[in-house]
Design a protein that fits this description.
Helix content is about 30%, strand content about 40%. The protein is built from 7 helices and 13 strands. A hairpin with a 3-residue loop joins β10 and β11. α6 crosses α7. About 25% of the residues are buried.
């Protein structure tokens, strides 16, 4: 039944004429106040043998990594490094270990794998700094701890790609509760004999809905008014709390 369902979503003509055809179970993730995370199923078909890699990337933002050192018994920021256009979400799933499916040059060209993820310092000279690798690893580690970066290869328990017969494949893409909003790209690559044979990219949107979305939009478009209202609410809450505790 699952195989039939997957094939039903893929036009027969495309499946015959293209070496790789893939799609998502949903192209929109709606975040409401009750959102606790969700999964999206990616499924596809091949015209023959080969290895598949799936790369999901979220919207890019600038980020700063700071290193804390202990000075006179107090932890303080001692050094920092800024990175430009860092993916806020990055997940990879493959049917086999990365070193087995493709040449490292090809993997680097398409940014497949954490070792090949492009993390460009805001200051180009920092790329040659002896501490660049340390700050890069710290940034990746922080994103992994927030479940925003992960790698799943072969039979790994983290985002593996399951094969359904010789042609079909599928994988579940998990999005945690703290997933950033914006437009995502889901890229599927087909490798044969270590070389890229075919590729396909499809968009995925993560948007807020409901009251939370309206509050967020108001905060973005009317920042001054939003700040003023927040201050008034805080003052009112403090005053009411003071009255309540005086009476009790």
């Amino acid at each position: 039944m699952l195989a039939a369902l997957l094939l039903a979503h893929i036009p027969a003509r495309d499946a015959r004429t293209q070496p790789l055809v893939a799609d998502l179970s949903d192209h929109l993730i709606a975040i409401s106040t009750a959102f606790t995370g969700t999964e999206v199923v990616l499924f596809g078909a091949l015209d023959g043998p080969g290895d598949v890699a799936v790369v999901v990337m979220g919207p890019e933002h600038d980020m700063v990594v700071r290193r804390k050192d202990r000075t006179l018994g107090i932890w303080v920021n001692a050094a920092s490094m800024a990175f430009e256009r860092v993916p806020t979400y990055y997940k990879v799933a493959t049917t086999s270990p990365l070193e087995e499916i493709g040449d490292s040059t090809v993997l680097a060209r398409h940014g497949i794998g954490l070792d090949h993820l492009r993390l460009q310092p805001a200051d180009p000279t920092d790329a040659d700094s002896p501490v660049y690798d340390e700050f890069r690893a710290a940034l990746i580690g922080r994103m992994q701890s927030e479940q925003l970066y992960s790698i799943g290869t072969g039979t790994s328990d983290t985002n593996p790609i399951a094969r359904l017969g010789e042609r079909l494949f599928r994988t579940n893409i998990y999005f945690p509760a703290n997933v950033p909003t914006g437009q995502y790209t889901v890229s599927v690559y087909l490798f044969r004999d270590g070389q890229l044979a075919s590729a396909q990219t499809t968009p995925l949107f993560v948007n807020k809905i409901g009251v939370g979305a309206r509050v967020f939009a108001f905060a973005q478009t009317q920042a001054a008014a939003y700040g003023g209202i927040a201050i008034l609410i805080a003052v009112a809450a403090g005053w009411l709390a003071g009255v309540f505790f005086r009476r009790t």
